[in-house]
Amino acid sequence: MEQPITERRAHREPWNKDKFVGQKAPLRPKEICAIRIRLQLGARTRELAPFNLAVDNKLRSCDLVKLRVRDVTHGEHIAARAIVMQQKTRPVQLEVTEQTRESIAAWIRSSGRHPEDYLFPSRLHSSPHVSTRQYARIVRG
Fold first, then answer.
1. Which residue, among 86, 76, 82, 84, has the nearest Cα to 96 in the 3D structure?
2. Cα-Cα-Cα-Cα dihedral of 87, 33, 98, 129, to 10°?
3. 108 in Cβ contact with 71 (< 8 Å)
4. Which backbone phi and psi does 91 adopt, to 5 degrees?
5. Every domain of the chain and the residues it spans
6. Which CATH superfamily, name and number, covers 29-140?
7. What is the 3-state secondary structure (H, E, C) of the chain?
8. Rounded CA gap, 79 and 83, in Å?
9. What digits encode the pLDDT tens for the residues 13-67?
10. Angle 45-57/132-140 helices, nearest 10 degrees?
11. Tens of pLDDT along 77-97?
């Protein structure tokens, strides 16, 4: 037998009650500087290079993880400017600051990357580059 429509269901709490939802506020320059210093002091080149590149150029994670070494280098040197094809919009010119060039060069040296390799490779053999989810975990850490 069906229940009458007039009965009230038990009250459930909404999943987002007392939680901040929606887009997060952008990092402030003071916070960016603090993160860079922590990564530098910890000698965490794997995290510092993508962080610097993303912050300097406001790249989406899907475009950042697909960068190849040849996209940001000219021979042995890190380029001051590079053009990258974005997935969702148009080609964009990257401005690579001196601090970012140093962190990318340190990452390439320590990881032994070649020009045809992805700049940020995955540790899994099934994926050629870091996934956007893994990149999000790195950023969160």
1. 82
2. -40
3. no
4. -65, 145
5. 29-140
6. Intergrase catalytic core (1.10.443.10)
7. CCCCCCCCCCCCCCCCCCCCCCCCCCCCHHHHHHHHHHHHHCCCHHHHHHHHHHHHHCCCHHHHCCCEHHHHEECCEECCEEEEECCCCCEEEEECCHHHHHHHHHHHHHHCCCCCCECCCCCCCCCCCCCHHHHHHHHHC
8. 10
9. 888 888 888 887 787 889 888 888 888 888 888 888 888 888 888 777 778 888 8
10. 100
11. 888 888 877 777 778 888 888
If you search the block for the tokens 């269901």, which residue do you land on? 9
| Token pair listed for 59 | 């790249």
- Global model pTM greater than 0.90: no
Per-residue tokens: 33? 């500087």
For residue 69, give both structure tokens. Answer: 């070494």
